Amino acid sequence: KLSGGQRQRVAIARAILANPRLLILDEATSSLDSESESLIQDGLKALCQGRTTFVIAHRLSTIKSADQILVLEGGEVIERGNHAQLLAKKGRYTQLYEKQYGLERNRFINPGEDFTPDLQRDVERV
Q: What is the sign, positive or negative, of the torsion defined by CA atoms of 31, 62, 20, 17?
């Protein structure tokens, strides 16, 4: 019997082998640990090149490099832009980003290390 992470890896491998022109990834890395997620994301970046890809995710690290990010709330698009543009707006995306990375920072193994997201650096990329 496969674990949730193993099933996700198999599904991603099948998508890669199918080589579709349109790719929809719905929480594609949600059951993966951070290390596996990072490896899968590198592969997905290559897979997404030259095709239309929709990525549905709650984990912002999955969508940070997207050309366009749509922030939905109550079934409505409330913000739209790339990562840096959305951080510059200081709206709902920024709140989600700070909350998510704050939680990650609190779970960090080496509390002495700085894991604070560099919002200013990301905003300056606009």
A: negative
d(CA 120, CA 114): 15
Under 8 Å CB-to-CB from 52, ≥6 apart: which residues?
Answer: 21, 22, 23
The whole-model pTM stands at 0.67
Tens of pLDDT, residues 10-33: 887 888 788 888 988 888 777 767
Which tokens in the block code for residue 66?
A: 């997207």
- CATH of 1-66, picked from 3.40.50.11060, 3.40.190.120, 3.40.50.300, 1.10.10.10, is 3.40.50.300
